[in-house]
Write a structure and sequence with these properties.
By secondary structure, the protein is an alpha/beta fold. Helices cover 44% and strands 17% of the residues. The protein is built from 15 helices and 14 strands. The strands form 3 sheets. A 7-stranded mixed sheet has the order 3-9-8-7-6-4-5, with helices on both faces. A 4-stranded antiparallel sheet has the order 10-11-14-13, with helices on one face. Strand 7, helix 9 and strand 8 form a beta-alpha-beta unit.
Length: 389
């Protein structure tokens, strides 16, 4: 083994010692609460399929229809020859759904987030970012080469002080709507007020709110009743929508600028048009999905009403993301393994994804779960904690 590989092997061993190595599970069934994982029947609380649409027969039918109509590849980037009429229709539908002037489709949410900031900001500008923002927002900020100012999680007073004392040409406030590891919702109305006061953009990553929050699942901005040309909305289409992809929505001039200047948009092949065809059907299910959202909320309330933990802590999330903070990395991995042995898949989340000392189980609820599924989870959690008392 060459010295460079020896160095990597030593670093991997250090990850093992700190209980930080990530492993992949192999799933042999469509996404859903009951799955075959690594050859075992498991009850899964591990996906972001919040409305249970990823395995929906209507979407499978739409994908088949889309493949027959459009084939399986776009063949080029959107700005060369890969932009089909179904891509165009999807962007128009997304813009109307989130009540924005225009939308631009991307292959993934990560690509969307690394596209926006570098297109709008550069050296001499400033980004003001929540400390718990998703990694893709952090990477997008670094690519922009603007000055980065991170404010304590959800602390609008600290943010206001930072904005007031930071002279700059252009400013952007950047936040998740629903924070993916805590499940709490950003103070979006307060953030928009600060954006108005300090002449800033407000970029909101609504990956975990789109489809779940707001009337007809239109997202966190719609739930808060916010409209402004300063708003830039990023939504993903592989979570509650159950398919794949992402979009950025905002003022028409903004979206046209992104189309011209976002390298992650310009220099990549368009997503297969069959996915856009499928997403049109997914939007119908989201818009008509009040019963699914009600089921999701009922499961969340049942979890909070039924949990009886004494050492560990269920965070007060009102979303589908329900974290149970254990603290120690090794103990968190042991608990996840015990649950796994009982046939329950609840992922262990450790630093650097979450701050040191806050390792946790990330319980993701889906409208596809039943009350019996949740009761089984609660019983197993109580047994696991009692075994470590």
């Amino acid at each position: 083994m060459i010295p460079l590989l020896h160095e990597l092997a030593d670093q991997l061993a250090a990850h093992d010692d700190a209980a930080l190595r990530r492993t992949r599970r192999v799933v042999d069934t469509p996404c859903g609460p009951e799955a075959i994982v690594d050859g075992r029947a498991m009850l899964a609380f591990a996906s972001n399929d919040y409305l249970g649409l990823a395995g929906h027969p209507a979407l499978a039918d739409a994908a088949s229809e889309g493949a027959k109509r459009w084939g399986v590849g776009a063949g080029a980037s959107h700005l060369v020859s890969g932009h089909t009429s179904i891509h165009e229709e999807l962007e128009q539908r997304l813009a109307a759904f989130v009540q924005m002037d225009a939308a631009l489709a991307f292959c993934t949410g990560y690509m969307a987030n690394i596209a926006v900031m570098p297109a709008l900001l550069s050296r001499g500008d400033a980004i003001f970012a929540d400390r718990l923002n998703h990694a893709s927002l952090i990477d997008g900020a670094q690519l922009a080469r603007a000055d980065m100012h991170r404010y304590p999680h959800g602390d609008v007073d600290s943010l206001a002080r930072l904005l007031e004392k930071t002279p700059t040409r252009r400013r952007m406030i950047v936040t998740d709507s629903v924070f993916s590891m805590d499940g709490d919702v950003a103070p979006l109305a307060n953030l928009l007020e600060l954006a108005e006061r300090f002449d800033a953009w407000l970029l909101v990553d609504d990956a975990h709110g789109f489809g779940v929050l707001g009337p007809q699942g239109r997202g966190a901005l719609a739930e808060a009743g916010l409209r402004s040309d300063r708003l830039i909305l990023m939504g993903t289409l592989g979570k509650a929508a159950g398919v794949a992809g992402a979009f950025v929505a905002g003022a028409a001039t903004l979206v046209e600028w992104l189309k011209q200047k976002s390298r992650a948009y310009i220099f990549t092949t368009a997503a297969p048009p069959l996915l856009a065809h499928t997403l049109m059907a997914a939007l119908d299910l989201i818009e008509q999905g009040d019963a699914l959202r009600a089921q999701l909320d009922a499961l969340r309330r049942r979890l909070h009403d039924g949990v009886r933990l004494t050492r560990w802590r269920l965070l007060p999330s009102r979303t589908a993301i329900q974290p149970i903070v254990i603290g120690d990395n090794a103990e968190t991995m042991q608990v996840a393994r015990q649950l796994w042995d009982e046939g329950i898949w609840a992922p262990a989340i450790r630093p650097p994804t979450v701050p040191a000392g806050t390792a946790r189980l990330r319980i993701s609820l889906s409208a596809g779960h039943t009350e019996a599924h949740l009761d089984r989870l609660l019983e197993a959690l109580h047994r696991c904690e009692a075994a470590r008392a």
